[in-house]
Amino acid sequence: MITTDAETRARALYDALAAGNADALADLLDPDVVVEPTAGLPGDLGEVRHGRDAAIQGFWWAIGRRYAARAEPERFLPTDDGALVVLGRYRGTARDGGGELDAAFAHVLRFAADGRIAALTQYTDSTAWGEALPAPDRPRAGEREMRRLSYTVDSHGVATIRLVRPKAGNAIDPRFTEDLDEATFRAAEDPAVRAVLLCADGPRFCVGGDLAVLGELEPAALPVVLRQMIDTYHQALERLTEIDAPVVAAVRGAAAGGGLGLLHVSDVVVIDEAASLAIGYAALGLVADGLNTWYLPRTVGLRRAQELFLLNRPFSGAEAVAWGLATEAVPADDVDERGRALAERLAAGPTRAFGRMKRLLRESHNTALPVQARAEITAMTDAAADEDAAAGVPAFRAGQRPVFHGR
């Protein structure tokens, strides 16, 4: 049954998996095959498997115990180095009362000299796999483990989302986007959160996409992985614009590409005056994500945005302030302290009123004047019914500092 025809071999793999044929799988796989699943799959499904038995029993049969689903290949794309990229979808349901599973995948297959499959690298939407599980087994939003970020809430009501991958420049990879989705969900759902602080370990805030990860992908797999990452990343960024709590970014060292999205969705940005910022997509032959094409023309103007995108011009923290992309520039050693001080100050403010301000300002970009006028009336009237207004107005009249509770 051994053949050097990669596509024939791959099709036989999917047929054997669909039929649950262990003997056929054993014949198709190299004894030392390595299966590298997508990180973040439920339970231990995301662990790398070494060897034929570990691949069959520890990965594919483990999937079968949790899901009644199959991998449906749609396209087979050979690469110059003899590998094969398979694009398709996982379709089915989770067992024991779970929900539907429908997730795109890209598999990169590599072959031994005798034609057997020597390696399979899987890229898929791990969140979709988790959400399909029945409620008792499902990794619930707000409780998922984070590895690229940390999340804490202090006694002031400041939720700190810290990027904790300094050796990689806090670069964005699939796990990063899933962690940011988790952290922003927690902040949005916790009424104790009255401000959010975005900060980072190490000398660089966020260098953008993780080229070490993206550069290892086969060309056909790159669009699939980027789509999954960007969908999740944009969802998290938009969540930060929608919550009432003001968002403060403390940016030190460098920020680039999609990492600039964290600045765009922040309400206050404290930046290292010597920071180095850049768009960077043109150098990679890519376009843009992180909401850069929406925010930058509105913030710095069309001509400047064209310069930043097309000529890939780097700029400094001081320029970011001058152009309206950042609020204030301070020495690098003062960035974190200043950012935290501002977050604590905002956390002591009228949180729900802040939320209404944020929405009015954001929507003003695309709203006609009469519509905006009516929106202001509604927002002001609603704010006047809040407890914070009941405390703030008389305190202001008496020349006292009001105590707000975010209600």
Automatic annotation (TrEMBL):
InterPro entries: ClpP/crotonase-like_dom_sf, Enoyl-CoA_hydra/iso, Enoyl-CoA_hydra_C, NTF2-like_dom_sf, SnoaL-like. It comes from the Bacteria. Residues 10-119 form the SnoaL-like domain. Belongs to the enoyl-CoA hydratase/isomerase family. This is Enoyl-CoA hydratase-related protein.
